[in-house]
Each structure stands twice: as structure tokens, then as C-alpha cells.
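Hello,

Our lab assistant flagged a job as stuck in the queue for most of the afternoon. It eventually completed. Since we weren't sure the result was trustworthy after the delay, we are filing this so someone can double-check. Below is the sequence as submitted and the structure that was eventually returned. Let us know if re-running is recommended.
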Amino acid sequence: MAVRFAAEGASLVLADRDDAGSVVETIEASGGVAIATRTDVSRPEDVDSMIETAMQRFGKIDILVNNAAIASTLVPRPFEEIDLSEWNRVLNVNIMGTVLPCRAVSPIMRGQGYGRILNFGSNTAVRGAPNLLQYVASKGAVQALSMSLAQELGGDGITVNVIAPGYIETDNNLANSAMVDNIRELAARRRAISRAAVPEDVVETALFLISEGAGFVSSQVIVVNGGPA
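-- returned structure --
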């Protein structure tokens, strides 16, 4: 997404707990503009620093994409066997890691009279999924809060939408054999489009939702999973 957005002219702040420098280098090599910040989106001080960095460098924030989550490292297990500490960790990152950036940018976007917020949910929150209830619950919360936030911010020219992907074969997901074994076959059987989903499958949908052309599209959950929902 970052590389594609940069190709369309966006100047990017890439926030990650790890070093996003390689993506910055890829973008700059193609003539784009990007900087990286080490950010844990579940920590208010990290989020505030990220926003301050963006404002100092670019003077405004038009677009926020919240795509950080604990997912690929989870081991599927029955509901009764999910430790409470894991519940707290997943909910803190997946929910508050969306809430905190939204809260930090909303005054800036209100002042501009313009903004695009794109949050990532999951198609598991639309139709359910066994053995990953901590993850499903967190993504259901993201989708619900996005619908409400869209109503709060719409009068200030800000849209809030959600992409709810199905299982996508990212490097992280493929590295987790438990995740692959539990979900991959099930996802393939359900799809109308019978092939594996890859990250590029969500990029064009994301690009539309942050574009000028989506100015009258808000409070929507767009399921990108090869159909059906």
C-alpha cells in the first residue's frame, strides 16, 4: 500500500515497531517521499510522537491508515483455552492501536476540514471464525467504532471506512504454520474466486477509499475476500 500510495503522489510517514527503512528506500528510489518512525501504536506517547513527526515534516495529515494488529503470531485454540493475558494484549494493540491514532489526528483533520481515515478490520468479524475469538472480537470492535466515528467526523469533511480482508498470504502469515493450517484451506473452500489472496488484492480498494473520488463514501465496511462475505 505504501509503495502504491507514494506512486500516486502521497508523502508518507511509515510507522512500525520495527525498522521500515527498506520500504522508505524503495519509495525514494522511485522518486517518492517517505519517512519512517519506530512506533508502538498501543502506546499513547509513541502515537503522539508519530503525529508530531508528521506535522513537523509535512505540516498536515490528510490520510490515516490503521493496519497494525496482532494476528499472524496467534495460535488458534478453543475459546476456553485463550489466556486472559493474550486477550489483553490483542485487544490493547488491535483496538487501542486504532483508537489512539484516530484520536490524535481527528483535531488536525477537523481543523483542515478534510480527512480520510481507513481502518483495517477482518472478514472474520463479519461472519465469525472459531478458535481465534480474541482476534475476531478485536476486529469487530474496530468495525463498530469506525461506523460511529464516521458519524462524529462526517460534518468536518472526514470520511471513515473499513477494509475487512479475508485470509491473506503475507510473509508473516505464511511463517505461522498453525495459522496457515487452521485458516488457509477453510478460506480457499469459501471463496468464489478460487485462488490465494495476496496483499496486492486490497491495495486498489484502499487507494479508492482514501481518494478524492470517495468523498461521499463513509461508514462502510468493504469486504475484500474473493467473495462471498
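-- support follow-up --
The delay was a queue issue, not a problem with the job. The result is valid. The mean pLDDT is 91. The CA atoms of residues 43 and 210 lie 25 Å apart.
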